[in-house]
Amino acid sequence: MPGELPADVHDTTTSPVPTGPAVERGPRERILDATTALLAEGGREAVSTRAVGAAAGVQAPTIYRLFGDKQGLFDAVAAEGFRAYLDSKTAREPLTDPVDDLRAGWDLHIGFGLANPALYQLMCEPRPGAVPPAAAAGADILAAHIRRIAEAGRLRIGEERATHLVQAAGTGAALTLIAMPEERRDLDLSLDAREAVIAAITTEAPVLADPGPVGAAVALRAALPGATALTDLERALLREWLDRIAGTAEPR
Fold it and tell me: Where is this region: Disordered (predicted)?
């Protein structure tokens, strides 16, 4: 049901550690697998060059040659985590109701974090440089969820702001639950946060039932890419106007 987290949420999320029949994997893959497994078993404190090398069957110079240093190794593991998370997001079929689809995506996000707590915390660490491609693709999936709600006329605020609100609340809820002792973990916290965010960004009925300009601007902004009668310049100008009406543009 949309209002409940899956009962077996710990067992159904994708793990970046490969399972099943053994396959031939090179040193880089074995090092990443070993690091991910050590993270899952003992957290960051369990990850040392010696422990990774022993588990992966390589010498320390191989780790340094492939990843530079320990932080480089952690960055690579985080990128693999984003890839596994992206695979779990794209594997499911979208639901008919875009708001229920957002609920399902939220639950999947929380489930992944609870199933892979040390990896999730590593993925959430701020790091300089380019965003991993899988992380950027995951953000695009969330933006697409929000776009579907906007196209249905049920988004009450601008798409970018709505995306940031869902992202911030979902990450915060996952990290808060991870920090709780497992025997005292309150999954209703995630459900309450999810419904609070959904109430803040969506309406039950299409917002165009309200004659105000904000709802009309949000809905038209979502449909703008399909306005083929306009030139690229005209679309860009109209997008700026609609963003101002919807309250999403920065004041000048």
Answer: 1-25
Tokens describing residue 176:
């808060």
Strand partners, 202: 155
Is residue 247 within 8 A of residue 155, CB to CB? The reply is: no
The residue assigned the tokens 């579907």 is: 148
Six-digit token string for 27:
């040193």
Residue corresponding to tokens 């090179």: 26
Chain length of the chain: 252
Q: How far apart are CA 63 and CA 49, in angstroms?
A: 8
Taking the complete model, does pTM exceed 0.85, yes or no?
no
- DSSP summary character for residue 252: -
d(CA 99, CA 146): 9
As a whole number of Å, the end-to-end CA separation of the chain is 45
Q: Rounded to 5 degrees, what are φ and ψ at 58? A: -130, 165
Model pLDDT, residue 202: 93
Residue 6: pLDDT over 50? no
- How high is the pLDDT of residue 25? 79
Cα–Cα distance for residue pair 233/215, rounded to 1 Å: 24
Whose tokens are 């899956």? That residue is 6
What is the second-level CATH architecture of the domain 9-122+131-209? Orthogonal Bundle (1.10)
Domain residue limits, the chain: 9-122+131-209
